[in-house]
Design brief:
The chain has helices at residues 24-29, 51-54, 75-88, 102-114, 187-205, 212-231, 238-257, 262-274, 278-286, 290-307, 321-332, 335-342, 346-349, 352-361; strands at 13-16, 39-44, 63-67, 95-100, 126-127, 136-141, 153-157, 162-166, 174-177. By secondary structure, the protein is of the alpha/beta class. The chain folds into 2 domains: 13-182, 3-Layer(aba) Sandwich (Rossmann fold); 187-361, Up-down Bundle (Dehydroquinate synthase-like, alpha domain). The strands form 2 sheets. The protein has a 6-stranded parallel sheet with strand order 1-9-6-4-2-3, covered by helices on one side. It has a 3-stranded mixed sheet with strand order 5-8-7. The protein is globular, with a radius of gyration of 20 Å. Bound molecules: nicotinamide-adenine-dinucleotide and zinc ion (ZN).
Length: 362
């Protein structure tokens, strides 16, 4: 019998716990053996002047690059920062560290790879296109939900597509899961990114690529999300932040072994064409996807109501037909998502025309 199972990579080291960010200095110290060693920290600029910034254990040539998360990661920014690092330093950094939500973690993951793989990041958007291992990479989430801290993809928007650099080398080497870092996230943002996690679990569990391993992670992630958003209204209690951070982590792992589906395919179109951030784009789509995710959508409506979070509606009402077609084309191209959601014969079940209709509902 022929076996063809992928030999997956996992995050090598992880720390979890309230205040664990304080261990970053000790973790980096182990890697500072040659005196020339230095690190580049990519930090969400929302933390400029905040206590967290003071706690970054800078030494020698270490550098902080502040990056705004107002826009999701772009290939052009990845290329610009990579070039800047090559120009400013004689050698490669010993490592890079991403501190922030999915945006900052994906920047760190992507730049870790473009530092050792020549040319534009656009040429690496896709599966297994990276040739060389990147520089050591640590991710430290300050917002829970995307699972980017464990996933094997760094999602980038390029001139042509929103697509991840996906390969074994994209998985970070180290993560620090410190729920305390998420205390200051605004409630709406916490909900939208938290729902990204909920949707990862729902989609991973509902499809043709589902399997016992992905399901095990997905089921626990889903249970934690339900608990956080149904039983703890707007609670930022430490144990609730812990649960959401672990839900995110498990949701990311569930996607290593399964896939996202209809909601993410539609959501990628909204982000790429209309620039909606990922979390809210997912919510806009799931809100209208009862046909595909029935009970999970009813539960989502309950969570929205309980937390009184605005979910934009009728956003495509005034769009010309060609924009709807542009949205549909982005979604249609994501065949790995359709394969999981609808099966091998997905093209018989989902057409560009049907996608235009789905977008017109949003
Ligand atoms: P984000 O990183 O874009 O941040 C959203 C907002 O929250 C920003 O304004 C940011 O400044 C703010 N923020 C973050 N932490 C904060 C804190 N502690 N206090 C106050 N404000 C804070 O949001 P996100 O939803 O985590 O990430 C979205 C990105 O992640 C998208 O680009 C999406 O494509 C990507 N993503 C990647 C994966 C993956 O596996 N790589 C999975 C899902 C999503
Ligand atoms: Zn997502």
């Amino acid at each position: 019998m022929m076996y063809n199972f992928r030999n997956f990579t996992n995050v090598a080291n992880f720390v979890f716990g309230q205040g664990s960010f304080n261990q970053l200095g000790a973790i980096l110290k182990q890697r500072r053996k040659p005196t020339s060693a230095f690190f580049i920290f990519f930090v969400d600029d929302v933390f400029k002047g905040e206590a967290l910034a003071q706690k970054i254990p800078l030494q020698g040539q270490d550098t902080i690059v502040w990056i705004s998360a107002q826009e999701e990661p772009k290939t052009s920014t990845v290329d610009l920062i990579t070039q800047q690092i090559h120009d400013d330093f004689n050698t490669l950094p010993t490592g890079v560290i991403g501190i922030g939500g999915g945006t900052l973690m994906d920047y760190a993951k992507a730049i870790s790879l473009t530092l050792t793989n020549p040319g534009s990041s656009t040429q690496y958007q896709g599966l297994d296109l990276i040739k060389n291992k990147g520089v050591w990479c640590a991710c430290i989430p300050t917002l829970s939900g995307t699972g980017a801290e464990v996933s094997m993809t760094a999602v980038l928007s390029g001139p042509e597509k929103k697509l991840g650099i996906k390969c074994d080398y994209t998985v970070p080497d180290q993560i620090i899961l410190d729920p305390e870092l998420t205390k200051g996230v605004p409630p709406h943002q916490r909900f939208y990114t938290g729902m990204d996690c909920y949707i990862h679990a729902v989609e991973a569990l509902t499809g043709y690529c589902s399997n016992a391993l992905g399901d095990a992670y997905g089921e626990k992630s889903l249970a934690l999300c339900r608990d956080v958003f149904l039983n703890h209204e707007n609670s930022y209690a430490p144990e609730v932040n812990e649960k959401l951070m672990i839900a995110s982590y498990l949701g990311g792992l569930s996607l290593t072994y399964a896939q996202v589906g209809v909601c993410h395919a539609l959501s990628y179109g909204l982000s790429h064409v209309l620039k909606y951030p990922h979390g809210i784009a997912n919510c806009i789509c799931l809100n209208q996807l009862e046909d595909y995710y029935g009970d999970a959508v009813s539960t989502f409506h309950q969570m929205v109501e309980q937390h009184q979070i605005p979910i934009p509606q009728h956003i495509t009402k005034a769009l010309p037909e060609e924009k709807l077609v542009a949205l549909a084309k982005v979604a249609y191209d994501l065949d790995h998502m359709w394969l999981h959601a609808l099966g091998k014969d997905w093209k018989a079940k989902m057409t560009l025309e049907k996608l235009v209709d789905l977008y017109a509902r949003l």
